[in-house]
Amino acid sequence: MEHIRKTEIFNAPIEKVWKAVSTSNGLEAWFMPNDFEPVEGHEFHLNAGQFGMSPCKVTMVDPPNGLSFDWGKDWFVIFELKEVDGKTEFTLIHGGWDADKVTEFGAPHKVVRVNMDQGWTGIVGKLKDFIEG
Description:
- The protein is an alpha+beta fold.
- The chain has helices spanning 14-21, 24-30, 109-132, and strands spanning 4-10, 43-47, 53-62, 66-71, 75-84, 87-95.
- The protein contains three helices and six strands, in the order βααβββββα.
- The mean pLDDT is 96.
């Protein structure tokens, strides 16, 4: 199944966007409460509300250009940042989808992917508001 991909241009310097996506407080402001640290190999949790504490592991930290982590048993998330004329192009990639798999909660990937695709649109919008607000 195809990765979810969301790209947005933020009217902010790359360092400000980097801080919003690479710190625990930054992530909490627009995504979920967490115990994230920007250290490769660091295991952390996202507080996914009704779904509980979701285990993650940082897989790449490349300031201020990118960050990735494994999420749950199947997924990965990548944040790519690129400076463009004093603004920042932000791309979110959420992959690991498999039509034959179900989540830890027993929901088929096909169903969850549709919901997450819509959800990421709103979440990236929250990130934009947090950065530009």
